[in-house]
Amino acid sequence: MGLNYYQIKKNVRKARKLVIKGTTAAGSGHPGGSFSMAEIIGCILYKFLKYDPKNPLWEDRDRLVLSKGHASPGLFSNLAVAGYFDESEVEDLRKLGSRLQGHPDLRCPGVEFCGGSLGIGLSFSIGGALAAKIDGKKHHIFTIIGDGESNEGQVWEAAMTASKYKLDNLTVILDRNFIQQDSYTERIMPLDEELIGDDISEMWKDAGRWKVGDKWRSFGWNVTEIDGHRIEQIISAIDSTLQTKGTPSMIVARTIKGKAVEHMEDNPKWHGVAPKPEIAPLIDLELDCQFMIAPSIIAGDMTNLETEVRKAVHGRADYIHLDVMDGVFVPNTTFDHTKIKELRPITEIPFDAHLMINEPVKHVQNYVDAGSDIITVHAEVCNESSFGEIRDILKSNKVGLGLALNPQTDLPSWSYKFIPELDQLIVMSVVPGKSGQKYIETTHEKTRKLAKTLSDKKFEGFIEADGGVDLSNAGACFSDGARVFVGGSAIIGQPDVRNTISNFRKKILHARRKLLINKAYELGGTDLVNKWIDLHIIGEKKNELIQIAKEASYV
Amino acid sequence: MMVELKDMRTAYGQTLIDIGEENPNVVVLGADTTDSLKTIGFGKRFPNRFFNVGIAEANLVSIAAGLANEGKVAFASTYAIFLPGRCVDQIRNAIAYPSRGDKKGLDVKMVVSHGGLTVGADGGSHQQIEDIAIMRAIPNVKVLIPADSIAVSKLTWIISQTYGPIYMRMARPKTPLVHQESQDFKIGKGIIVCDGSDCTIAACGITVKMAIDAAESLKQEGTSCRVIDLFSVKPIDSILLEKAARETGCIVTCEEHNIMGGLGSAVAEVVSESYPVPIKRIGVQDKFGESARDNEIPLLLKKFNISSVNIVEKVKEARSVAR
After folding, report:
1. For A5-52+65-192+210-277, which CATH class?
2. A201 pLDDT above the threshold of 60
3. Which of A354, A473, A505, B86 is deepest in the core (most CB within 10 A)?
């Protein structure tokens, strides 16, 4: 509990990898539904849930009820990451004598409910919530239900009951991934509206068509609709449900089945099928290859940064990159923490504050107080002692920790000991100080070397490419090892920010596909390349993969 | 001779209040039948421990499971036809399955009324004649069928103090008393209501009285019957049954339930393995019941061949092939 955005993100990634490990070892299981709820369960467990792995039945713990029990690999993996048992135990999934049964079972510590026969968990949670009310207990009940599960009439019996008893100690999250065992939910039993035609991949993006929240509203629930893969949105929604009095809360989290593994995404086939052992290493690599887009707002209108933030929000940016320049460390001056504080209410998207200032240790608390989610300071103006102090301030305030390197700076040896704790390393590919410069080509080589060094030194964070990154080089930066992409003039400077961000993602995705095809060839030659390609049956992915494989003469 | 008739549900409702006074952990749930089940009295006395979830039985038993999971002793009550008859999945997976160490299943007491044919007027659709078979087949669940209001009171107390999922079936009509107030009840132990050596009659619920009547009538003819109230259908008293088989040489069972999977099946399972003797089973012959007004209920039972007269016949048949 109480972890920050970056820690949650890393834990979720770790848990996803364990899901692949477990289901691959078992040869069966449900990765699809485990991945659609990965961020949801991650935020509940690592941010909100009060629990004690050493004392799983601690009376005052919050309860996490997984009603859609077929996603048990997702639950078990997160319980392992949370410390209930050793991570290696996930390999016992579904094995004879294992605590990790095919569906959640009380013999596994941390499991609160034997879910799997669908439609029961919400009623069961109501029992728990009523018991807490009788006993005057303050703990909260978090329940995850599925959209296929919502076909069950009992869900709606429970919906009425929770409302009748005003169970404000109950928060339910609907994992709205639009897929159930046979097909898309709107084909089998529409929760929103009947699906006409074949336009399936697009339909979940159209918020105007989500109606299921209104069903819950009509039952008297406090309802919030969010993007269920956006950690900041989940956190904000749960924060608000915990303040709600007098009604139960429903968070409709729009998710993607199989999220984070391209061939599983939006593909009903992956509801209940495990990956083949030869494919597992590729998936594992893919899970290491998540990437984020961080528009830098100083590339826009400096007199109206509010508008620039809104453009980034509208463009579905992952972070808002905030370049703080003091006119001393760098020749320019941009803004300081007071501006960040003003911008903070506009969005819950993480603020990625990049402090290009002298003596950051003196100022870092101000940037914490202003609402930064991660604060990155420059190696050139830190030493072991001051960076240690910065680390302590940020950790105690649950803010992400970043270190930045100028083009001429190498990773200082004093920084090595901090590497496992770093959430982010910014590799500057222009001399910092102003927007609109050209990418320094030698940075590619530098990033590749850094990626290797970092990985040897147990780095779990993300490398952020910053400076002159645009559509022409973003793919190459990804191949170097960068996972966060700061775009100044190349994004915020463009007339259509949303479209530009989408194009960035396509470019980087292409590079990622290439990386994975290369890996497939390395591990299993043409045969594995073909197998990998054949898994990608949804959308345009397959054609692009074939093209990549042909260009590389793998097929 | 007029026998005093007493209502099982009234006994149940009153006992719940008594238990509620002593045990603050007891909660009671109903599904729009709380007036009929007489649990409403508990609700009035302890409103914060009483939940009427409406006509939603799956919800009823699952919420009871959630309460029990938090350490409550949860009594969930409605008509038999709507509880095992409707909620076998929820009973199995939410109540019986969840186990923590030695605690097998959750502490939910499923106490129903309107079991069997004696529902009468509501008709075959509402006469639950499969519940013993259903509940008996679920691991960790105990099945009790009290014969009168004394048994109901005593067993309600006992189950409130016995951990685990328990199903208890009451009958709709008022029933004659067959036990004394002083009678001891133990889950898993049958009660020898009257002793005899020529044949054993094992019954449960309203058929215990029929068995006693049959035994008396047979006594006039010189046949001595041992009548056992096997109110604890699961766990069943296999020691007592083996002894009865050994000492009386044949057994007749009688129940207000389908002939498949009920009391007769349970007795046959035990005896055929421990000390095989001829067994004749009385019950509904694998068909559904039908409406009968209150004054016609004896006729309804007779139509389905469940009566003391039928027991007498079966005892004679059994004795003719006795070991």
Report:
1. alpha beta
2. no
3. A354
pLDDT of residue B193: 97
Q: Which residues contact A518 (CB under 8 A, 6 or more apart)?
A: A552
Query: For residue A535, what is the DSSP state?
Result: H
User: Of A207-221, A253-267, A357-371, B78-92, which gets the smallest average pLDDT?
Assistant: A207-221
Percentage, residues of chain A above pLDDT 70: 97
Distance separating the N- and C-terminal Cα atoms of chain A: 48
> Which chain B residues are closer than 8 Å to A133 by Cβ?
48
- CATH 3.40.50.920 range(s) for chain B read 191-320
Is there a contact between A126 and B27 if contact means CB atoms under 8 Å apart? no
Where in the sequence of chain A do the CATH 3.20.20.70 domains occur?
A: 292-494
Radius of gyration over every alpha carbon of chain B, rounded to an integer in angstroms: 19
pLDDT digits (tens, 9 = 90+) for B40-59: 999 999 999 999 999 999 99
Give the CATH architecture of domain B191-320: 3-Layer(aba) Sandwich (3.40)
> In chain A, where does the domain assigned CATH 3.40.50.970 lie?
5-52+65-192+210-277
pLDDT at B288: 98
**What is the tens place of the pLDDT at every residue in A188-200?**
998 987 666 555 5
Residue A326 has pLDDT above 80, yes or no: yes
Average pLDDT for A160-172: 98
Does domain B5-176 fall into CATH 3.40.50.970? yes
pLDDT digits (tens, 9 = 90+) for A75-128: 999 999 999 999 999 999 999 999 999 999 999 999 999 999 999 999 999 999
Q: Which of B63, B73, B138 to probe by mutation at the A interface, max A CB count within 10 Å?
A: B63
A126-141 per-position pLDDT tens digit: 999 999 999 999 999 9
Q: Which of residues 27-86 of B touch A (CB under 8 A)?
A: 27, 48-49, 51, 53-54, 56, 58-59, 62-72, 74
Integer CA distances (angstroms), B104 to A406, B69, B100, B141, B155, in order: 63, 12, 7, 9, 20
Domain at A292-494: CATH code: 3.20.20.70
pLDDT of residue A271: 74
pLDDT at A446 over 80: yes
DSSP, residue by residue, A52-79 = -TTSTT-TT--EEEESSGGGHHHHHHHH
Is B95 at the interface with chain A, CB within 8 A? no
Two structure tokens written together for B289 = 């019941």
- Half-sphere exposure in the Cβ direction for A403 (13 Å, CA): 29
